[in-house]
Amino acid sequence: MIYGYARVSTATQGRDGNSVKEQVEALNKYGCAEIITEAFTGKTMERPKFGALLDRLQEGDTLVVCKLDRFARTAIDGVQTVRDLFNRGIRVHILNMGLIENTLTGNLILTVMLAFAEYERGMIVERTQVGKSVAKQNPDFKDGRPKKFTSIQISHALELLESGKSYTQVKAITGISKSTLIRAKRNR
Prior knowledge:
Elements: E1 2-8, H1 20-30, E2 34-39, H2 48-56, E3 62-65, H3 68-71, H4 75-87, E4 91-94, E5 98-100, H5 104-136, H6 151-162, H7 167-174, H8 178-186
Parallel strand pairs: 1-2, 1-3, 3-4
Antiparallel strand pairs: 4-5
Helix pairs in contact: 4-5, 6-7
């Protein structure tokens, strides 16, 4: 049986052919009988659906993924996973690379490509950190998620509360949640 695996993370959804829709289309075009999709960030090795799929694969099956970075997060993880699959008689096909063969040359190509994928992820992290350190030199830099409501909006909502309106009424008027208003009241 031919199984497809598609993974997205919030950092890559919709860009560079990595959306789950694009991956599923490519896997369907290849002829996968079953496609497993998963949304997990590339930072984590935890991929429960991928692990369950690996456990289900049997001798003679083929595992298909669109790109190598959807398959493994590190070169070591990728090589170990592919070797385990080869030992179980399972074929591995990376659509942008081709069928990976259980030969010396196939293992060399896989190892090199996994190393490049890991290097590329490392470079992205490094560039992000450099950009953040440059941004921190700006006196107006604020780390973290931007505020959803301005201080004027919060003040207006607190005035409505003080005028006798309930939290539910203030939320209906301003869209500011009760928990945000309680925090703002406490920090006043």
